[in-house]
């Protein structure tokens, strides 16, 4: 366990350094006038003139004259100091905390809906394999899995926001603003999650010890509670944990579609505006989250797996 923890800590340090260096070099090599893009993001495209671009160019040259830009950035990185946004002028960490909280809130609500849909349907289908519900869920899952997130999101916007006027198509701050983006992510995950839980449940109910418990006369609900759920926990937790990692890492499209003020949405805008500090801070935060969440999933599986508990 401690060996695994040490490996994950080393992996996190490597991810921070690698992602930071990669984003720094990629931003520097992007085509176009960086000063013009920063000025456009700061003042607006219709207000950019030669003097505004010249001011930004002077700011960039002043920062480079402070020493090697790369070495200066590495020194700040060790102190978790990402500086100020080149567009807004606000401290990057202040903006990042807000954006990260919004991304985690969206990912958490999406995962909650996924669990709400997936566990009862998957367990029921696994306990009644090849039944009508199992076959219906198979075809419905295949259909939902084949639809891209942006297409599913657009369909939900047209149906629930424009046609029925039940939910807002964009915005944040209220519970109803969570519904459309969370539902978009949850439906896509449920399409796969139902099959994962169904297969895990089917493996458990088909095992010898489970059938032996049934022959002893235990009620199906008691049998599932005593002998099924613990053996389901490890594969199901692994899948849900990995999906939460994916939700945090992969919400860029959904956040952009629904104008959700998360870290993915901010990263896209920062790339267009050449806001280097925001790009670096966002990319490294996502990389660290990936390592941290994977570490938590590994620890949870180690504790819940009966074979791991006996080892």
Itemize the secondary structure elements and their pairings:
Elements: H1 2-29, H2 34-43, H3 50-65, H4 69-78, H5 92-127, H6 132-145, H7 149-163, H8 175-205, H9 208-215, H10 220-249, H11 252-257, H12 263-273, H13 276-304, H14 306-310
Helix pairs in contact: 1-13, 2-3, 5-8, 5-10, 6-8, 7-8, 8-10, 9-10, 10-13, 12-13
GO cellular component, one term: plasma membrane
Subcellular location: Cell inner membrane; Cell membrane
Domain ABC transmembrane type-1: 100-297
Shape verdict: elongated
Mean pLDDT: 77
Distance separating the two termini: 11 Å
Query: Please, what is the CATH homologous superfamily of the largest domain?
Result: MetI-like
Which parts are unreliable, with pLDDT below 50 for 5 consecutive residues or more?
none
Could you describe the 3D structure shown?
The protein has 311 residues and is mainly α. It has two domains: 33-66, no CATH class; 97-310, MetI-like fold, CATH 1.10.3720.10. The protein has 14 helices and no strands. It has helices at 2-29, 34-43, 50-65, 69-78, 92-127, 132-145, 149-163, 175-205, 208-215, 220-249, 252-257, 263-273, 276-304, 306-310. Helix 5 runs antiparallel to helix 10 and helix 9 (208-215) packs antiparallel against helix 10. The longest helix has 36 residues, at 92-127. The chain starts with a helix and ends with a helix. Belongs to the binding-protein-dependent transport system permease family. OppBC subfamily. This is ABC transporter permease. One of its GO terms (molecular function) is dipeptide transmembrane transporter activity. It is a multi-pass membrane protein.
């Amino acid at each position: 366990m401690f060996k695994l923890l040490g490996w994950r800590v080393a992996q996190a340090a490597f991810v921070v350094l690698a992602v930071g260096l990669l984003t720094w070099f990629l931003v520097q090599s992007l085509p176009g006038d960086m000063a013009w893009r920063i000025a456009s993001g700061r003042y607006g495209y219709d207000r950019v003139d030669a003097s505004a671009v010249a001011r930004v160019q002077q700011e960039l040259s002043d920062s480079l004259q402070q020493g090697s830009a790369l070495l200066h950035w590495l020194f700040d990185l060790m102190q978790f100091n990402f500086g100020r946004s080149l567009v807004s002028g606000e401290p990057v960490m202040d903006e990042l905390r807000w954006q990260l909280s919004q991304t985690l809130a969206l990912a958490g609500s999406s995962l909650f809906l996924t669990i709400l849909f997936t566990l009862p349907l998957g367990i029921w289908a696994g306990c009644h394999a090849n039944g009508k519900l199992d076959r219906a869920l198979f075809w419905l899952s295949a259909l939902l899995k084949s639809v891209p997130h942006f297409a599913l999101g657009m369909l939900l916007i047209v149906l629930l926001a424009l046609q029925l006027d039940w939910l807002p198509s964009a915005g944040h701050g209220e519970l109803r603003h969570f519904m459309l983006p969370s539902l978009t992510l949850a439906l896509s995950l449920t399409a796969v999650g139902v099959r994962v839980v169904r297969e895990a449940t089917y493996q458990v109910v088909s095992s010898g010890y489970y059938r032996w418990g049934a022959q002893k006369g235990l009620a199906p609900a008691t049998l599932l509670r005593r002998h099924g759920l613990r053996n389901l926990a490890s594969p199901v937790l692994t899948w849900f944990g990995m999906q939460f990692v994916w939700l945090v890492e992969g919400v860029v499209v959904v956040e952009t579609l629904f104008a959700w003020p998360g870290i993915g949405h901010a990263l896209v805008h920062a790339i267009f505006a050449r806001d280097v500090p925001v790009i670096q801070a966002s990319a490294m935060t996502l990389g660290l989250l990936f390592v941290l969440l994977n570490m938590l999933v590994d620890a949870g599986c180690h504790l819940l797996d009966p074979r791991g508990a006996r080892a």
